[in-house]
Amino acid sequence: MPELRQNFMTKEWVVIATERAKRPDQMAVKREAKPVVSFSEKCPFCQGHESQTPPEILGLPDGEGWKARVVPNKFAALSPDCPPERTIRRSRRSMGGFGEHDVIVETPDHSLAMAMMPDSQVADILRIYKIRHDQLSLDPRVAQVTIFKNYGTDDGTSLEHPHSQLIATPVISYQVRQRFQEAMQQFDDFGCCMFCQIIEEELEGQKRIVLTSEHFVAVELFASPAPFCTHVYPRRHMASFSDVSAKETADLGRVLRTMLAKLYIGLQNPDFNFTIRTAPAECVGVRYFHWYMSVIPRLTRTAGFELGSGMFINTVIPDEAAEFLRNVKVEAAVGVS
Amino acid sequence: MPELRQNFMTKEWVVIATERAKRPDQMAVKREAKPVVSFSEKCPFCQGHESQTPPEILGLPDGEGWKARVVPNKFAALSPDCPPERTIRRSRRSMGGFGEHDVIVETPDHSLAMAMMPDSQVADILRIYKIRHDQLSLDPRVAQVTIFKNYGTDDGTSLEHPHSQLIATPVISYQVRQRFQEAMQQFDDFGCCMFCQIIEEELEGQKRIVLTSEHFVAVELFASPAPFCTHVYPRRHMASFSDVSAKETADLGRVLRTMLAKLYIGLQNPDFNFTIRTAPAECVGVRYFHWYMSVIPRLTRTAGFELGSGMFINTVIPDEAAEFLRNVKVEAAVGVS
Known about the structure:
The structure is a homodimer of 337-residue chains.
Chain A: E1 3-6, E2 13-16, E3 58-62, E4 65-72, E5 86-89, E6 92-96, E7 100-105, H1 119-137, E8 144-151, E9 163-169, H2 174-190, H3 194-205, E10 209-212, E11 216-220, E12 230-234, H4 246-266, E13 272-277, E14 292-297, H5 304-309, E15 312-314, H6 318-327
Parallel strand pairs in A: 2-15
Antiparallel strand pairs in A: 1-2, 3-4, 4-7, 5-6, 7-9, 8-9, 8-13, 10-11, 11-12, 12-14, 13-14
C-alpha cells in the first residue's frame, strides 16, 4: 500500500508510491556512452586555456600547472558591482542584483568525473569550497553562500568539464529561513539538535545507512522526495560548513567520492546535483542547525502535482535504495565502511 | 544589471538574470512536429476504449458518446482503500497512503490540445474539475485537493491523449500551509487580501497584464520564478475554487484557452503545467486567501542552485514576457481583451 512520509527536518510530506514502485536497479540510466576525451580544444576550462576565463580568484598549483582553480562565472547570475539596495513599491519588492558567482574547475582533466577522482582530489575541492565560503561570508553584503554541483548533460550543466559552482546572495532565501525556523522550533521543544537526533536514530536502525566513516554518515532520507536522495551528515554537531576541520575534510573527500562512485556504478552514471546546506554567516555556532551535504541523482522529473502542492511522489522505497547502494562495490577507500 | 525580486505572496526571492537575459521570442521551442492522429489504436483514453480504464467516476455525455470523462488513475499514487492513520516513531512520521487520484480525459480526440479546443470545451473541463473538487472536499478524510495538468512529452506526462489530473490527500502540504500563513499575516498586518491588492496594482500598472476579461485577469508574475509563469486571478474575492459561479467558469474557459493559445503560438507549443491554487476545505470562506490558476511553460530546468537555496534564476524579464504574450494574436474569443 502507498505511504505518506513526513520529512522531520522540513515538515514536507512525500508520497512513497508503492503501486508505481520500482526496484532500485530499474532506475539505472540506459544511455549511450559518450566518447571521453581528457582535453578538448574548445573547452575554456582545459589546461592551456586559462586566458579564456575571467582572471583566476584562487588556484591550487601542481608543479607548472594547477590541480583546481576558481574563476568568476562568465555568465554570472549576479554581479559584485551591483549595490544590494532595496526598493519597495507597494507589493513589488526588489533589490540590486549584488552577488558573487564562482566556477570551481575541479581538475585540468576534461573527462575526469568526480566519482572517478582520487579521494584526495575530492578533498582538495572541498577545501576550496570552504576557503571561498569563508572568504565570502566575511563580506557584510553577503547573507547566504550556496555551493552546488550540476553533473550531466541533462541537468542544468552547459559545460561538461568537471566543475562546481558557488553563488553568494545578499538575502537569505525563504527555503533556508523556513528550515532554520523548523530547526529552532524543534530545539525549543525538545532541547536537542534535530539533525543529531536523526543521525543517532538512523545509526541505531541501520536500515537507511549507505556508508559510515570516522566523521560522516551517508543515509537515504526516510521521507526522500526522489529516488536515492542522500544526506551526508557530519557526526559532530556543527552548524556551519566553516566549522569543518582539515581531518574531517579529508574524510569527507573519501565519503563523497565513494558515495558518487556507488551512484555511478549502481545507476550507470546518472546526472546528479549536490549542495551543501549550511548555516548562513549570521547563524554560525547555533545549537539547532547542523550542516550537511545533499546528493540527488536526477532520475525523475517533477510536474504539475509537485508544482501545485509542493509534495513529491517517490517511486523507490528509501530503505531499498539504501540496501541497493550498500551492495554496490566500490574499490576500497581506506577508512570508509 | 541583474535584479533580485521578492514574490509578495510567498516571500521567495528570484534572480532576474539580465546578464543571461533572453528576448522572450528566443524561448520558443524548436522541435520537430510530431504526426498528429485523432484516434490511436493503443490509447486507453480514446473513444471505444472505455473498457481499458477503471470504471468511470463521471462522464459528460455527447449523444451516443462523451465529451469528457473522469476515471481513477490506473497507476494511482495514493489509494482510497488505505486508512489515513498516522504512525509516529521518534523522528519518523508516516501515514497510510490514503487518497484519490483521478484522470480527467478532456476530449475523445487524441490530438486536440487544450490550446486548440473551443472555449466551451475548456469551460466544461473546468466544470468537471469543480464537481470533483467539491465532491472530494466533502470527504472528512480529505484535507487538500490538487488539480493539475501536465502537457508535453518531456513533462511528467506518460500519455499524450489530452488529460489532466486531480489528487486528493489526507494532509495539507507544507507549501500550501506556508502560503496560507503568509497570506494570513499580510491580512493581519494590512487588513486586506494580498491577492486583491496585487490584482489592483497590476491592473493600474498594466505592464505585466497579458489579458483581462469580465471576471479574470491573466498576469505575468513580478517575481516570476521561470519564464512566462502566469497567474490567472478571479477579479472577485473568493478563497476557494468551490466559490466560482457558472458564469465565471464559462469566462475562465475563454481566458484559459486564449492564454494557452498564446503560449502555443508564441512559443511554438511548449510543454507546460498548470495548477489551481485554492483554499483547502477547512479554510473555505476566509478573507485572506484568493484562489487562482498558475500556468508554467517548461522552458528551463532547475538544478543545484535551486535545490540548495530554493531560489530560482529567471532569464526572461516578466514585463517583456507580458508584452510578448499580449502581442501574440489569437483568433478572437468574445469577451476577452
